[in-house]
Amino acid sequence: MEKEKKSVAGWSVVAAVFLTGFKLIVGLFTGSLGILSEALHSGLDLVAAVITYFSVRISDKPADIKHPYGHGKVENLSALLETLLLIITCFWIIYEAVERLASGKTHIEVNIWSYIVVVTSIVVDYTRSRALYRTARKYNSQALEADALHFSTDIWSSSVVLIGLICANFGYHIADPIAALGVAAIVLVVSFKLGERAVNVLLDTSPAPAREEIAALLDDTTGILAYNDLKVRVSGADTFVNVTLKFEPSLSLEAAHRLSDTIEEQIHQRIERCNVHIHYEPASS
């Protein structure tokens, strides 16, 4: 598992290095704000990819005395840092686009390399985002999912820039800074969604779908009179569940233990990489 996650994260770093350099050279050569904004976007994607690479290396380390719940939240912290990088990108893009629109300095030079770099970016971003999403879903990795969002965002933003270049080629140079604003809008939307998820995990917000699924399981289990203190939290790819079960006072300790083991196994079947702690006691207490 760790080897596959590190491999896909490592190739994302390589892809980000290539795209950043390619876009920067073509952007400086043509003077296109759309391409330069894409170069900055890819540059921050490179930083994010590096953060992701190191976070997946750390997050899969086993729990120890200082970190009894493991190191999984390194991935969630990584996702939050990547969100901040995306927001910084947006501020720069919006500032430059508004300044060009206000000053009227919107003329750019469009050539074959302008189109090559944007189309190449779309192809590479599509390939990397698919690989990252596939691995992120397989191992429930928020860091890899955040990295995938970076690359998938680039697909949309590059498409916007491509439209701007086509318009500029027909003399509508104002389309370039407008395309840059389109990039910023796309990035902001994705950033806030990603940031919200990362903050929720870091603040131990209970994931509603998992909690509701466990509650439904307990409600349908024969032998449980009641339950309370159901707590569900997520750390990286791991889910931690704590619950207190109420049994008939006449139920033997051995029978209560067997039923608790059965419930724990059923929770494991529904939620991958789940750490379950069940406390059971007689209902009268």
Question: What are the salient characteristics of this protein?
Answer:
single chain; 285 residues; mainly alpha; Alpha-lytic protease prodomain-like; Alpha-Beta Plaits; 2 domains; 3-stranded mixed sheet; 3 strands; 71% helix; 10% strand
Write up this protein.
71% of the residues lie in helices and 10% in strands. The chain is built from eight helices and three strands, in the order αααααααββαβ. The protein has a three-stranded mixed beta sheet with strand order 1-2-3. The chain starts with a helix and ends with a strand. With 285 residues, the chain is mainly alpha-helical. The protein has helices at 2-30, 33-59, 73-103, 112-139, 142-169, 175-202, 208-220, 253-270; strands spanning 226-235, 238-247, 274-282. Strand 1 and strand 2 (238-247) form a beta hairpin.
